[in-house]
Amino acid sequence: MDPLLEPVGLGEVESAVYLRLIAHPRQTQAELSSALGKSPTRVRGALVLLTEAGLVSKLPTSPARYVPAPPEIGIDALVLRRQERLEGLRGQARDLARQMADTPHGRPGDLIEVIEGDAPIMHHLVSMQLGAQREVDIVDCPPYLFGQSSDNDEERQALRRGVRYRAIYHAPVLDQPGKLANVLDFIGLGEQARVLPDIHLKMIIVDRQLAMIPLRLAEAETGVRILVRQSPLLDALVTCFGLLWEEAVPLGSLPGPGGPGDRDRELLAMLAAGLKDRAISRALGVTERTVTRRVTQLMAHLGARTRFQAALQAARRGWL
Question: Does pLDDT of 102 surpass 70?
Answer without folding.
Answer: no
